[in-house]
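Explain this one:

_____
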Amino acid sequence: MKTINFLLLVVLPTLLTVGCESGKVPAGSSEPIDYDAIRGFNYTPAGVAAPRHHVDSWVRYDESVTNFDLDLAKGLNLNQTRVFVNYAAYEELGDELAGRLQHFVRSCHERGIGVMPVVGNGPWVRDTTLREQGRRWAEFLVNTLKDEPGLAMWDIMNEPDYSSRNDSLRRVLNYDNCRFLSRLFHELDPATPVTIGMAGVDGMIEMAEWVDVLQFHDYSPTRGEIINTIERAKEFAAGVGKPLINGEIGCLARANPYDVTLEEHMKAGVGWYIWELMIVRDGWGSVHGVFYEDGTVRDPSIAAAIMGYFRNRDNILPEVPDREGMVTRTVAEIDKWTSEPNPGWSRGLDLAETAANLMESSQAAAMITPPTWEVEMLRKGAEDIPALKTLLKKYAQVLTPYIIQK
C-alpha cells in the first residue's frame, strides 16, 4: 500500500463560537490537516502500571522507550497520537515536565506524527475555588508546547460525559470544567484548535459549541451500530461546519474488533485514534493494543487493518491443511509417540511444533494462547514427558477433523 503523505498541521475551522480567530494555524505550520485522513493512536508506554500509568509515563519518562515505540507507530503509517498529560505529573515534576513534553512532541514530529495532549483533569474540577491552579496548568502547557510544530490540538478533558452518567452533579462539574478550559486555551493559544474527548455522540453534540474539532468515542459491538454512530456524528458535524474525529476505537472486550471498526471508519472517511498503540500489561493490555514492548504483535490482523487490509468475510476460500497429507502423517506420528513407553523428548517437541504450525497457519486453533507459545514454553523448561503427551493429544484432537478421508 502506498504511504500516504499526511499533513500534520492544523487550522481552526471557519465557524468558531468561543472567541477564537478563524483561519489561524499552529506555530510552524503552513497548511491545515486533513482530519478525515487522521490515522492515530492513544499512547501509554507498555511498562507503566495502573492506576498511575498516566502519571508515571511522565515521572518515569524514558526517551529510548519513546523513540522505539514511535518508530513502531511510524512503521504502520500512523500520523497522530493522543496522549494523557495528567496534572498530577506536574505536581510531582514541576518544570522538569516541560523538557519531557518537548522531547515527546519533537520525537513525534520527526516521525510525521502530530500530538493531541489530553490535559483537563485536576483538583479544580470538583472544587472551583481552585481554578487558579487550572489556569497555571494551562499556562505551563501552552508556554511549553505552543511553538512546537508537532502540537496538533488540545484535548481539554477525557470523557466528561462517561464517568458521570449516574452522577448528575459530577456531570455538571465536568461540563463546567470543559467550558472553563475551552475559554482558557482559546485565550492563551488561539492558534491551536481545542477538542473534547466525548464518550459518545450525544455528549459531543451537547458540547459542540465549545470546541473547534468535534470528537466522539465509540466501542459499538456490531457493524450496524458502528455505521449508524458514524453517520449520526457525520450528519451533525456537517450541519455545524466543524471537522470530526473519533478519539477512541477498538476493544475486544466490548466486541469492537479493530479489523471491523477501522474498516467502517475508513469507508466513512472519519479520522480515528485506536486505543491503544502498546499492550500495557498492567493496564488495558488484556483487551487493547497492537505491540508488545519488544515490538512483536499479539494479533497481526490489527496491524493489517491499520494499514488498510481487512479480513475477507464474504467469498472466502477455507484452508485445507491436509492437502498434501501433512495432517494425516502428523496425527499418526503423534498417536505413535504418545503410545510409546519411553518416547524421545526432542522428537515429541518437534511433533508438537509441527502440529502447532499446522493449526496456526490454517487458522484451526484459537490464538488467545498460541500453540507455538505453548511448545516454546516446554522447550525452555525442564523435560516433562507427561505435559508434552497431554499437549500432543490436545493438538491431535484439534487436527483430526481436518484429515482428508481417502
Remarks:
- The longest strand covers residues 244-249.
- The longest helix spans residues 168-188.
- Residues 35-306 form a domain with the TIM Barrel fold (CATH 3.20.20.80).
